[in-house]
Amino acid sequence: VRWDKDTGWHDAAVTPYGPIALDPAAAVLHYGQEIFEGIKAYRHADGSIWTFRPEANGARLQRSARRLALPELPVDIFVESLKQITAVDKDWVSDADEASLYFRPFMIGDEAFLGVRGAHKASFYVIASPAGPYFAKGVAPVAIWLSTDYARAAKGGTGAAKCGGNYAASLLPQQQAQAQGCSQVLFLDPVEGKYLEELGGMNVFLVYGKTNTLVTPALSGSILEGITRESLLQLARDRGMTVEERKVTIDEWKQGVSSGEITEVFACGTAAVITPIGQLKGEGFSVGDLSAPAGEVTMSLRKELTDIQYGRQPDRHGWLVRLDG
Ligand code: PMP
């Protein structure tokens, strides 16, 4: 779907996959005017195809657009675009266990000019890719690396937007994490450097087993407002857990795991749903035991959310939207 300042959104079309022609002076290539989303389609046992809370992704895309001086795409066009891609070939949505069709909606400023300002032309695209189960060999705890050299976001910056630039800034810390044998990087707040924010591509949760409490960093203005995060908070409240969105220091994590008060830690996002975190490592320290199995709360929340997504449990919050038929 194209946009320009005079005519607004127009020319929606489904076209064969292929390269995009861009003017070498297009705004996206010089000023990083790009935002995106990640959302999946799931096949239910009766063959029907559904997606999860697309209005929430559509609304987040609008917030990202505002921050990046891009035009806001109406949420109904966002949802319709997922339906139209699904209609091209229903076989793209596999019926294998925990398989899905992953959609990558994105928007770029593609007006050609060299002065620094928001583009007066933009394009919204959706590409799709079949995805197998995230954990092919069963859900396994991972190690994560605490980055103290870099922050993911700045105060007043773009941390709460899902824009390519945030990920560009996290690639080097992510490489460092991998060099330390960790699968993801954990970032602290950009102001004091002591409060948890999130991983490179997931939000983070601590479970206090004895008090049946689930804790996650409050939305600070620099954390991405994850849709999985919000859904898990709801499911935890539904099952009577105490839920706290607040500031969490890195020392609280280290001490809580060492003292046994924190019984489980996990990360969440659309791609993996929930990933258990077995170990936290950083410059000169390591807490947790990577060989311990994933915790009970982690696994039962993961099962409940995937059961809703795959239609194995009633959708009591009205989160699913049908994409076919
Ligand atoms: N934080 C970051 C930085 C992410 O890239 C993602 C993935 N979109 C998340 C959190 C989780 O968000 P969601 O649950 O909406 O996938």
From TrEMBL:
Keywords: Amino-acid biosynthesis, Aminotransferase, Branched-chain amino acid biosynthesis, Pyridoxal phosphate, Transferase. Pathway: Amino-acid biosynthesis; L-valine biosynthesis; L-valine from pyruvate: step 4/4; Amino-acid biosynthesis; L-isoleucine biosynthesis; L-isoleucine from 2-oxobutanoate: step 4/4; Amino-acid biosynthesis; L-leucine biosynthesis; L-leucine from 3-methyl-2-oxobutanoate: step 4/4. The modification N6-(pyridoxal phosphate)lysine is found at residue 162. Its EC number is 2.6.1.42. SUPFAM superfamilies: D-aminoacid aminotransferase-like PLP-dependent enzymes. This is Branched-chain-amino-acid aminotransferase. It comes from Stenotrophomonas humi. Acts on leucine, isoleucine and valine. PROSITE patterns: AA_TRANSFER_CLASS_4 (PS00770). It catalyses: L-valine + 2-oxoglutarate = 3-methyl-2-oxobutanoate + L-glutamate; L-leucine + 2-oxoglutarate = 4-methyl-2-oxopentanoate + L-glutamate; L-isoleucine + 2-oxoglutarate = (S)-3-methyl-2-oxopentanoate + L-glutamate. Pfam families: Aminotran_4 (PF01063). GO terms for molecular function: L-isoleucine-2-oxoglutarate transaminase activity; L-leucine-2-oxoglutarate transaminase activity; L-valine-2-oxoglutarate transaminase activity. Its cofactor is pyridoxal 5'-phosphate. Belongs to the class-IV pyridoxal-phosphate-dependent aminotransferase family. It comes from the Bacteria. GO terms for biological process: isoleucine biosynthetic process; L-leucine biosynthetic process; L-valine biosynthetic process. The lineage of its organism: Bacteria, Pseudomonadati, Pseudomonadota, Gammaproteobacteria, Lysobacterales.
